[in-house]
Amino acid sequence: MQLSAYTRSIKDILSLKREYIIPRFQREYSWGQDELTVLLNDIIDNLKLNSEGFLETTDYFIGSLVLAGEDDKDTKFNIVDGQQRLTTITIFFSVLVEIFNSYRKTNLVEATQRYIEALNDDNEAYLVLVNENPKPFFQFRIQQLEKDDSYEPRTEEELSMMNAFIFFKSKLEKDILLKYVNKHYSLNLDSDDQYIDLLKIMRNQVLGFKSIYITVKKIDDAYLIFETLNAKGKDLEAIDLIKNQIFKVIKDESTGDLPKERWKEIRDILLSREEKLSFKQFYRYYWISKYSFTREAQLFEDFKKKIPASNESYKDFLKDLKLGAQDYLKISCPNSSDWTEMELKNIPDSLAAMNIFSVTQHRTILLSLFEGKRKGIIKQKYFLEIIKLLENFHFKFNAITSSRVSNIESKYSTFARKIREAKDSNDIIKIVEEIKMFFEANQPNYSTFKQNFMKLYYTKNNTSDKKLIQYILRKFEKYYQGTNELKPSNLSLEHIMSESTNEYRIGLIGNILPLDKELNSEIGDVGFIDKLEGYRKSNYRTVEKFIEQYGDNEVWSIEDIEARTMALSALAYNDIWKI
């Protein structure tokens, strides 16, 4: 491997009439406020006052920049290391350009923009930094002189870029910046001209930053350096190393840029709904669902051991990973449109419940379950039974008692791999029984469940349990109906004893009924007898049950609230969420 190394300033680097390309194997832009603050402080704090009392620049080393390309002939260089810094500097300059433009400093606009968008020998414009992933957002929303605000950030990377732009724009506002610099250097800058001069000095300080400029000739060497620089996973996620490994091996030009397109398709799937799903989390659950239980730090090494490094095996892996992403989306962001069969129409509710419980480990088992159903290995009966078991267990285990079992993630990985290895229904029946036995052994006992169930609480001023209580009341309603015909979609929470009562226990679930919003509003804040008359108009079986039991009461007491809460806890544990 042949290396060339020079000491160059950022100004030198960005003035070489070269395109610096952030290639597909690179990690996404991820700098947050901590890193941005450090860079901004380094810019300002390394200025110095000269003998005449004016600020001037000083030398500062910003780190190495490793590139793939031949110095003597190439005009396009792939960035191997340093893309986070170059991207951030580009964003910083873009903010400066916007400020200079707002003050009608045309010369400064043009002088600064040329480090973002330059001219080649044919007087054609080109972007100095080219990022292959967040196109066209980075190009049109950040880099161009005339920014197009119609481009909204869609991915985590684009959001990080937008946040960096907003960060610099807020920190470089005149009043904020001058206040900081005046205090830091005991100055008294206050005019527009002094403000613009300060921004120009800060720009020059960045342009003067020194870097070790390292180039290698071959892109294969770039991949090797990329992996070597991050051999211990330091500063790089396992998913980035895996991506790099796949892109390095697949080189069949007849397929076009297949790995890049497949990777983008997977990422787009995970970002296609309102809740944006983490590629990193998806990948780990997918891996431990199919291959082995592996800690995050070992994912890359495990990948290299278990997936042969060949075109075909990596293509097959990406194809399967995409199918897994489609299943993961349905599991994590449930939508009724995913389930058109009548027998499966309650699946989205069960999956959505897991999000209410703040549970994600179950996705490991479900990834295997979904694949098994898709391949026809798992019958619908067992598909539904496992999902029901998961919902019931995690309601008791997580939502109510916040319990912990140290081996649950590894156990789920084992169950998931057994599901994938099942040959027929007999194998699936055995696995269902294993899962049921595990849940029976690890579910909290009734005493613990009741104690925590009776702590569920909702008032207008204390809403942390609201979604969970709404979920519970929907499940009670379904149980009382004995059918799935009526789904309470317009459910509001009615306090039987009014919230205006100065009594803590009004927020307990025993004091809450489900009502249609319109009826709830119609009843209003009245006495118990009058409320009962209003409740009789409700179509909810839960309310009918309440009237059957308490309709002859003249008052609704604290003792009634506690007794009903306890009764609901027993019904929940023994019947509705029974394992």
UniProtKB/TrEMBL annotation:
Superkingdom to which the source organism belongs: Bacteria
InterPro entries associated with the record: GmrSD_C, GmrSD_N
Residue span, GmrSD restriction endonucleases N-terminal domain: 10-247
Coiled-coil segments on the chain, per record: none
Domain GmrSD restriction endonucleases C-terminal: 448-569
PANTHER family, A to Z: DUF262 DOMAIN-CONTAINING PROTEIN, SLL5132 PROTEIN
Name of the protein in question: DUF262 domain-containing protein
Taxonomic source organism: Lysinibacillus irui
